[in-house]
Write a structure and sequence with these properties.
- The chain is α/β, with parallel strands linked by helices.
- The protein has two domains: 136 residues, 3-Layer(aba) Sandwich (Rossmann fold), CATH 3.40.50.720; 180 residues, Dihydrodipicolinate Reductase, domain 2.
- Helices cover 34% and strands 24% of the residues.
- It contains ten helices and 13 strands.
- The strands form two sheets. Strands 3-4-2-1-5-6-7 form a seven-stranded mixed beta sheet, sandwiched between helices. A six-stranded mixed beta sheet has the order 9-8-10-13-12-11.
- It is globular.
- The structure holds NADP nicotinamide-adenine-dinucleotide phosphate.
- The site of NADP nicotinamide-adenine-dinucleotide phosphate has 31 residues, from α1, β2, α3, α6 and α10.
Length: 330
């Protein structure tokens, strides 16, 4: 199987290459692509691979193409690849809400993959972490409403986000003037910024709308009430979420705890706390601080590495699912 990664020099693309190697995915040839050529810029299985400029022509020889190059790259190249029957696994938001296109988190809705599917958008990172945590609750007691406040890391805005946070931190420590914020709407160091994406006419940010709409699609609950406040925090990697859930049926803490403990992809913490730095570089969603308000309402805290489970690992898991089902030949 020949696999290409578009955006292989970026935060998500680099992690995809790393996860493909870690999980020993059966790849004959890996092709790293970006917006320009670079020699020996990507490490894979002990080799340093050249990065080539993405083009229609260059991507044609692959069986599977991962996109982590932003919306423009996905929209430019994916349609032509799909016409040729090539599998596209896309981290951009371009195709996620299209009818008939599945939005797969293997632990949540892996059974929605059909043999005819070729296009697999990877959902919003915050929504993947949220839905992984909500799936056992949906199955145990039904979901009536979900309210969530997010605490999202700088690397959610890619390498440029990490660089801007680091530059702010350096300036503050040195007592120098901070560089003007360009990736985030306000300086992020020693701050929290309650805007991710632009606001719509009703005041919801782009990130808040994505988390709401994509979560309903992944959970298969179009009528679910979901309300999101998305906030950027000065953390390098891993998103955290304070979640307030109302269920359809009554359920107790012990039953909920057992449901989390039995769920693949979740580490449940009966006691104590878990922070972004605890989970950076790992693939599970961590659920902690489960607190009952009533038999149908409760609060919890969840954290996951958004570059891994929220993007790269989920993308690679989709390919593994296709291999397992025999929809792609190794
Ligand atoms: N960061 C996250 O936590 C996260 C989570 C989920 C989804 N996503 C999505 O994943 C995608 C990548 O995000 P990122 O955070 O990894 O961004 P990033 O760090 O800025 O990396 C972007 C990558 O895309 C490449 N690229 C840009 N324009 C391209 C083009 N026209 N053709 C080919 N390659 C191009 C860049 O190559 P050069 O270096 O050559 O410019 C770089 O390798 C975005 O769609 C983002 O929304 C990100």
């Amino acid at each position: 199987m020949n696999v290409a990664v578009v955006g292989a020099t970026g935060a998500v693309g680099e992690t995809i290459v790393q996860v493909l190697e870690e999980r020993n995915v059966p790849i004959a040839q890996l092709g790293p692509f970006a917006s320009r050529d670079r020699s020996a810029a990507v490490r894979f299985r002990g080799d340093r691979l050249d990065v080539r400029t993405a083009s229609d022509e260059a991507l044609r020889g692959f069986d599977v193409v991962f996109f982590a190059g932003g919306e423009d790259a996905s929209e430019k190249y994916a349609p032509g690849l799909l016409e040729r029957g090539i599998i596209v696994i896309d981290n951009s938001a371009s195709f996620r809400m299209q009818r008939g296109v599945p939005l797969i988190v293997p632990e949540v809705n892996g059974d929605a993959v059909l043999p005819e599917h070729r296009l697999f958008p990877v959902a919003n990172c915050t929504a993947i972490i949220l839905c992984t945590a909500l799936r056992p609750i949906r199955d145990a007691a039904g979901l009536a409403s979900v309210r969530v406040a997010t605490y999202q890391a700088a690397s959610g805005a890619g390498r440029a986000g990490l660089d801007e946070l680091a530059a702010d931190e350096r300036a503050l420590v040195a007592g120098e003037p901070e560089p003007a914020a360009s990736i985030f709407p306000r300086p992020l160091a020693r701050n929290v910024v309650p805007q991710i994406g632009s606001f719509d006419a009703d005041g919801w940010s782009g990130e808040e709308s994505k988390v709401r709409d994509e979560s309903k699609k992944m959970l298969g609950l179009p009528e679910l009430q979901v309300s999101v406040t998305a906030v950027r925090v000065p953390v390098r990697t891993a998103h955290s979420e304070a979640v307030f859930v109302e269920t359809q049926c009554e359920i107790g803490r012990a039953e909920l705890a057992a449901a989390f403990e039995a769920s693949p992809g979740i580490v449940f913490h009966r006691d104590g706390i878990v922070t972004p730095r605890d989970v950076e570089g790992t693939d599970n969603v961590h659920v902690a601080r489960l607190r009952m308000e009533s038999p149908r309402t409760f609060a919890l805290w969840c954290v996951g590495d958004q570059l891994r489970k929220g993007a790269a690992t989920n993308a690679v898991q989709i390919l593994e699912l296709l291999l397992e089902k025999g929809y792609v030949a190794a």
